[in-house]
Design brief:
Layout lengths: L3 E6 L3 E6 L2 E6 L2 H13 L7 E5 L2 E5 L4 E2 L11 H16 L10 H17 L5 H11 L9 E3 L8 E4 L2 E5 L6 E3 L1 H9 L6 H8 L5 H21 L10 H8 L4
Antiparallel strand pairs: 1-2, 2-3, 3-5, 4-5, 6-8, 7-10, 8-9
Helix pairs in contact: 2-6, 3-4, 3-7, 4-7, 5-7, 7-8
GO molecular function, one term: kinase activity
Protein name: Aminoglycoside phosphotransferase (APT) family kinase protein
InterPro entries: AGP_Transferase, Aminoglycoside_PTrfase, Kinase-like_dom_sf
Length: 248
Amino acid sequence: MDEVEVVVAHRQRATLRVGDVFLKVDGDLAHADVEVRAMALAPIPTPAILWHEPPVLAIAVVPGRALGLLGEPSAASPEAWAAAGAAIRRLHDAPLPPWPGRRLDDVAAELDGECAWLLANAVLPAEVIHRNREIAGAALRPWKPVFIHGDLQITHVFVDGDEVTGVIDWSEAAPGDAMFDLAIVTLGHEERLEDLLAGYGTDVDRDVIRAWWSLRSLVASHWLIEHGFDPDAPGCEFDVLRSRMREP
């Protein structure tokens, strides 16, 4: 009998692996519903859905390995990064999913609230928070909605050699800002942005991508701390925020 491996577990959801099957258990049934619908619409490789009995979603293992890990250099080739960029472009060029995305006002309000929490709890020097809040402002502009993954972490993109074999974890998919997806996959791996854009295309705003690096790191840190993760681990969110202080 295959052993049960706990891939991730916190108060909101848990993911277990049993052999070649992942079992995702989510306290919010809407997350799995969005994931199933998004994978059916996405024009790029996604995991095979084996069955769905709320609150459990069973999906097959994706071949290959993740593009990289946050906090570690990516061993993937420039060509693999370019292939990931091309896949993201296909997603962004696809018809919009038929459910709403986040509103700009909601993103701005969340950013302000999370910055206030970071300041009140003194988890980072105030000047780091203020500087990154300033940089993040460039992301708070109207955008043309595209079909975004919504949580395109580097560990959610799988490659085999120079080919994308699958993109996982679609529960945040929605209409949204293309620059957000590009920022999340390169968060903590800023040096691979040009490799990614070699496949995606050059009609991007690098200043907005950099703004999303700051915004995402500011907004995610509170959640990570409360759910037992460490945004202060080497190469992770706090390092991303500190690195902005070295820029002109």
